[in-house]
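Intended use. Records like the one below are meant for learning the mapping from a protein sequence to its folded structure. Do not use them to infer anything beyond what is encoded.
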Amino acid sequence: MSADPNTPPAAGEAPITAAGMMLGLRKVSVLMPGIVVFAVAFGAAAAAKGLSLFETLLMSGFVYAGVAQLVSLELWRPEWTWGAIAGIAVVTATVNARMVLQGASLQPWFAKYPKALNAFHLFFFTDANWLIGTRYRAEGGRDLGVLVGAGLALWLVWVIATGGGYMLGALVSDPRRYGIDLVMPIFFAAMIVPLWRGKRGMVPWVVAGLVALVTARLVDGYAFIIVGSLAGAITGAFRDDAA
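Structure written out for the chain above:
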């Protein structure tokens, strides 16, 4: 195995290293306090909605979709119809659809690794992984262990903290009351800043932001996430083609 996770694996070496996993753990550790609080908030909200501890842990362990889990609880019903199930599926799919674009942006990196390994680490793929992976690869890193280590650590903390939140009840059921909902936006801003590549790269960002804001005003729900992302991606693609 490569001793340096920033060095591409040579022929015959394992495509993932322990050093890379530890690097991923260190990179994601700054986010852990915010993840813990969010998971506690979800666990408390799930308890308030009447879910059992087992159901709550099952959702965090297998759905593992932070914001989408909180959104789904807002739509939770004591009794379910097929229409209600379809509605919650559409909303959560819309919220999580950004992961398609995030995964596609790192596909040139992922494609070099075995499909089984990609299937494993993509289960743990999150916004935090994407930001960490984007910066790491831009700096010349190639060890997929960075994403695996960060993803496993986040998943474990999320599930454990969910259980703690459930047992605490509604103590932190409203994260906005304590400004906790700002943790993720602040983290995103801090991670994205080093990706700045000059004024030329500003245009897709501005387009994505403006389109998302307009969509949020005109359309209820979370369509602004997808519409804004697609607008920014298409703008960036056309500018690259014109270069």
